Every structure is written in structure tokens, then in C-alpha cells.
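Async update (no meeting this week)

Hi team, since we skipped the sync, here's where things stand on the single-chain job. The sequence we agreed to prioritize is pasted below, unchanged from the tracker. I ran it this morning and attached the output directly underneath so nobody has to dig for it. Comments welcome in thread, and please keep replies under the output.
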Amino acid sequence: MIFPRHGEEAQPTRQSMSMWIASLTLAMTALIFLSACAAPLPTSERLEQVKAQKWAQVRQQTAIAGFVEETPAFIRIFKQDSTLELWLQEPESPQFGLYKTYPICNFSGTKGPKIIEGDHQSPEGFYEVGARQMNPWSRRHLSFNLGFPNAYDTAQGRTGSALMIHGGCDSVGCYALTDELVEEVYLLVEASIAGGANVPVHIFPFRMNAINMHRHKAAPWLPFWQNLKQGYDAFEITKIPPEISVRAGQNGVQYVFDTPVNKSVF
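Output:
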């Protein structure tokens, strides 16, 4: 390699310039490819009517509550309370604030995870909703797919499909809201995705505080719920949805939670 003498500026060679241009072209091609592969948000005549009737009101309500448009959203569901919490990210902060709590008018089964297709059991665990899971053509007004089975469910051999949050107030393994309420939830989930943030959905059998865990200490699903509680606690402490992965360890397959406070909580 030839170095410039003291006082001289290093001049790019034709070869180095060609390599730089090739690298830039490759990076631009990759960016274009990723943009082209990003799933567009689906729409329908029904959804457009809902937006025309409701979006201005929803946007005004979120602004009054102190949230900005297209802010990231986060959902928690509690079976025992039959409630769905919708959290939105606070302006200029990584933390989330509770926007509203919605009553769930119907879900299937009892406390505990979904095990097999056809067991009429609504799932528990940690899921994420993206553009491909939004369904504005739903037979139950509007819906979005939870993404069951996730990596943990698959590792446990659990089966099922088309498990949703939807309107219509009837359920076969799903979580149902009234049509009016699902419209608002759907619009805010869609806005989050449009802003670039998929929506985590954390589903629990109950609020996983010490009292409730003690009440259910003899339940057959206690080890599973103790793992869910780690994710519950991670958010309760930080008010930031944890990053979630699945690993096999000495206690079998488990959810693993990475938080700003405590990395890789097993």
C-alpha cells in the first residue's frame, strides 16, 4: 500500500471510487427492495366509512389525552377482568401511558393457554400485530389477527389459527369487543403500524400481582404463568414493552425479556 507523503492529501484511486460507488448502489438497491417488501395496510369500503365518521374524533381525543398522531400503541388483555388496555407512547419519551381500558364482551374458554385447534380456548402469551394481520373485511366488523401460534406456542406444539381481536361480541377462541369499541382500537392500531411501529399484544389470565399469583398457586398452569409474570413485571417497572424472544433452558422453553433496566430476564 502506498501512503501519501507528509503534507499531501490522499487521493482516491479509481479502484476505491468504483468500490465506493458499488457499495452505495448495493445499499440503495437494498433500501428500495425493503421498501417494496413492506406490507401495505389493507383497506375496505367499510373501513373508509369508519375513518370518515370516527377518525377526527379519535384523533382529537388522543390529542386531549396528550398523545401525538401515529404514536406507537401497545395492548394488554386480562381474562379475569374481561378488559383490554390500550397504551400509547408518551411524546418525547420511550415510556407508554394508559390511554383507555375497554370492556371485552366475549372470549372463549377459561384461564390458561390455548393448546390445540378446536379447543375453543382464547390464547395467553405475547404476540405482535403488523400490517398483514389487519382485516378490514372481517365478518365481525373489523379485526386483526393476534399471530397465534407464535414461536413459543410452536415450540410447545400448540396449534390454532385465525385468533383475532374483533367486533361482533361473539367468540370462538378470539377476544370480542362491540363494533363501536373495536373501531377505535382498530384505528389506533392501524395508526401505530402506519407510523412504523407494530403493536405488541400481551395477554394474561389475570393481573399478575403477588396476591393473584398466591391465589392461583395450586393451578396446573402456574409455571407458565410465572414466566408470563416476568413479562408483566418488566412492563410494570419500566412502562416500556420489553423485547421478547424464546429460548430453551434448564426449565424448558421459556419467554425471555430484554428491558432497559434488566437485560435477558429468564
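Quick observations from my side:
The chain has one domain: 45-258.
Residues 6 and 185 are 66 Å apart (CA to CA).
Reply here if anything looks off.
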